[in-house]
Specification:
heterodimer; A: about 475 residues; about 60% helix; B: about 290 residues; mainly alpha; 4 strands
């Protein structure tokens, strides 16, 4: 037999549960656009008799109502892990894409402002000099075009070194952000552990932690493992050694990443003295993107440009040395480097040639004696002066092989950028799909919440009606003897 | 992809993504229309960029070959017209010499008149031998001086060769060596003419001079033929380079430039896709169950 008043309790439990259901729906609706919010569901649990009936203590009721068994957070750890992984890869690629797009545009090829045009104009000026070796104008043009060629190589080198320098600063910011995120994740691990311990609803903290873990993945990649006690640990690949990863976050302890720059400008990182693996494609996330661009793409582009500058200078100087200048002497250096540590960035016309264009060795008649130059008091009946042979200028115009090298350099960079672009496009699709999957499970659907709300409202009304009915029954019972 | 649940956020994200995608397509084609080029940076088409760079280099080379050939033609034309004049005058000198040889009993004054004309021819030939192109004597090699022969008819050039590059690995000599044309010092046109005029004046035998002048005419004609052949080579090379220029320009345009009709259609298609994305967004973002709960 159930007690007279127990029906009230059943109705009350229904009112309470429906209240919670409405609260949960309300909160879902409120957070429909909140980043990282995972929708909740109020899970109803039936309240009945003893779960283990015995012979003499049996339950003769028909259920004692409902209780809120919990508020469930609808997430899937597997999908979350995939989201972290794919987002980290996407961030790795888009970071590279953004940086490389700037360098790609600054190459200015194919067009009339790049190095290729400067080379062809320089060669053309040498051909003109070959046709007119006596003219000062032709010599000055050669010097000017050589200067323009050197300057276009310097500009391109500066574009690369400037971008690399910016990215080193960028990397230090990212390291700082990652360290902050790691500390935050460790804090959240601690708070969640405490909240779970005292039975507080940790839903908002879980959301926050997943978000911090995601932003950490976007910053440095790494692998998140979930410990048996539910805490998130994050580890990053190290440079060789066993185990192959260094922990960044362990429980409520966060380590810090330290960044250092080598003499050649390569970026490297360490956690607590253990060096991270900075080999191409190892680090992920934004930091991995920056590191690979600075250590690999830009570094190889720069050294290719340095090699190009070296080739140009040695070929031209060698060609110039084979000829005879306007003063009848063997040709000296045409081009030189201002800084042996930065060839492409400091290539220039030698000061001597810039001051005296006559030093360009246009003549190929190295063995012929030079007649005395005609001065104001020239004595040579035939005018005299240096010969007007232009054969060496002609040879110099075809001396450099850098057009081919340069085309190869530009092409390989273009291929690299195009490949990053297409990888990023593919990865965007993949990431969107994974995010969609996550959203399908965790996202709030307003129609669904409206349905939940209306259902809870109806159930609430019905429970109230039950209570009213019980009240009137009780009234009937109390007033029976009158 | 199996969609089990669709949320409002998914819809708005997808709408945004497709609107952005549509816009970025339009931006790409807009850039192509604005610049008129489909290669705006190496990554647009790395292989195409390589081709374009090589073609630009080749085009600049062909431009230079045409310029060089034109310059060379200037030199050779000067040589050509000079040699024609020289041959005519030498033939005149020959006629005068034969006149002097035939008329055994010529008066001293008549001989003097012949000798004077021969002297004038020598002066004129000397002037022609010093013909210049843009200030450089065309028979003087690479000399920096202004003449190829001095007043005594001695060669003062340096014997160098003036060549012009008119094709890949093709250089053509555009001058003629004064000694090959007019003869070595002491045995050249000028000394022969001096000897002739002297012989006429003192009445000695001039048959030697006549023979020498014959040889000179033959040699100069041969030099002229050689120069004509070189002029032909230059003209051919220049024509070839001009044709290559045209061919390269059109190929370069194929590689670098957009086809206007194609891009216009592409822009229209991109616009259509963009509008469709906007329309889809307008449709999917609007309705909700609340519209129907009344």
């Amino acid at each position: 037999m159930t007690g007279t008043f127990s029906g009230f309790n059943t109705a009350l439990s229904a009112l309470r549960y429906q209240q919670v259901a409405m609260d949960v729906a309300n909160n879902n609706v409120a957070n429909v656009r909140t980043d990282g919010y995972v929708r909740r569901r109020a899970v109803a649990g039936e309240v009945g008799g003893s779960t283990s009936p015995t012979m003499y203590a049996f339950y003769d009721g028909h259920g004692e109502g409902v209780k809120t068994q919990g508020v469930q957070r609808l997430y899937d750890a597997l999908i979350d892990a995939r989201v972290r992984r794919e987002s980290s890869k996407l961030s790795y690629l888009t970071t590279q894409q953004t940086i490389l797009a700037r360098v790609d545009t600054a190459i200015n090829e194919p067009g009339t402002k790049g190095i290729n045009q400067a080379i062809t104009e320089f060669n053309a000026s040498l051909q003109d000099l070959a046709s007119n070796p006596g003219g000062l104008a032709a010599r000055q043009t050669v010097v000017a075009k050589a200067g323009a060629l050197a300057s276009s190589i310097r500009t391109q080198s500066e574009n690369i070194t400037g971008e690399a320098a910016d990215q080193r600063v960028h990397a230090s910011t990212v390291v700082q952000q990652a360290n902050d995120a790691a500390a935050q994740l460790a804090d959240l691990n601690k708070s969640i552990y405490a909240a779970e311990g005292n039975g507080t609803d940790a839903g908002a903290l879980y959301d926050k932690r997943d978000q911090v873990a995601l932003s950490l993945a976007k910053l440095v990649g790494g692998a998140v493992t979930i410990a048996a006690d539910g805490r998130y640990n994050v580890a990053i690949p190290n440079a060789g050694g066993t185990p192959s990863t260094v922990p960044l976050v362990t429980g409520d302890q966060a380590a810090t990443i330290t960044m250092s720059t080598s003499a050649t400008g390569d970026l490297s990182y360490s956690i607590g003295g253990t060096a991270l693996n900075t080999a191409a494609g190892t680090l992920s996330g934004e930091l991995g993107g920056i590191t690979d661009v600075v250590n690999q793409t830009l570094a190889s582009q720069k050294s290719a440009l340095d090699a190009l500058a070296q080739t140009l200078v040695s070929q031209l100087n060698a060609a110039n040395a084979l000829g005879k200048d306007q003063h009848g002497d063997a040709g000296g250096d045409l081009l030189t480097f201002g800084d042996p540590g930065d060839l492409a960035g400091s290539i220039k016309v030698t000061d001597a040639v810039a001051a005296d264009p006559g030093l360009i060795a246009a003549s190929g008649n190295v063995n012929a004696p030079t007649p005395p130059a005609t001065g104001p008091s020239g004595t040579n009946a035939n005018g005299g002066g240096p010969d007007l042979d232009g054969s060496n200028a002609d040879k110099m115009s075809i001396a450099t092989t850098i057009t081919g090298d340069y085309a190869a350099l530009v092409t390989s960079f273009g291929v690299k950028v195009a490949s990053v672009n297409s990888q990023a496009a593919t990865q965007t699709t993949l990431s969107n799909q994974v995010l969609d999957e996550q959203q399908q499970l965790a996202g709030v659907n307003l129609d669904e919440e409206t349905v939940n709300l209306v259902a809870a409202q109806h159930a609430y009304e019905a429970a109230s009606k039950v209570m009213q009915t019980l009240d009137s029954i009780l009234d009937t019972l109390i007033n029976m003897k009158r | 992809m199996a969609i089990t649940r669709v949320t409002q956020q998914m819809l708005s994200q997808r709408s945004l993504a497709s609107i952005m995608g549509g816009l970025s397509q339009m931006a790409k084609y807009q850039e192509q229309l604005e610049t008129g080029k489909k290669l705006n940076r190496p990554s647009d088409d790395a292989a195409g960029t390589n081709t374009a760079l090589r073609m630009r280099t080749a085009l600049a080379e062909q431009d230079q070959y045409v310029r060089n050939a034109n310059d060379g033609k200037g030199w050779l034309s000067t040589v050509d017209s000079t040699l024609s004049g020289v041959v005519t005058q030498l033939q005149r000198a020959n006629t005068l010499a034969l006149e002097g040889a035939n008329d055994g009993a010529m008066s001293q004054s008549a001989a003097e008149a012949l000798a004077t004309e021969i002297d004038q021819i020598r002066e004129s030939l000397l002037q022609q031998a010093n013909s210049d192109y843009l200030g450089r004597p065309v028979f003087g090699g690479t000399t920096a001086g202004s003449v190829a022969f001095d007043a005594n008819g001695n060669y003062v050039g340096d014997g160098g060769e003036v060549t012009r590059r008119v094709g890949s690995g093709v250089s053509v000599r555009v001058d003629s060596d004064g000694r090959t044309v007019f003869g070595e010092d002491g045995d050249n046109v000028f000394s022969h003419l001096s000897a002739l005029s002297a012989a006429l004046r003192n009445g000695s035998d001039i048959q030697t001079s006549i023979d020498q002048l014959q040889t000179d005419v033959t040699r100069i004609s041969a030099a002229q033929a050689d120069e004509g052949a070189r002029l032909n080579r230059l003209t051919q090379a220049s024509d070839l380079a001009s044709q290559a220029q045209l061919r390269l320009k059109s190929s370069l345009s194929d590689v670098e430039d957009v086809e206007l009709a194609e891009v216009t259609i592409n822009v229209n298609q991109a616009e259509l896709a963009y509008k469709a994305a906007l329309a889809a967004a307008a449709k999917t973002l609007q309705p909700s169950l609340l519209d129907f709960l009344r």
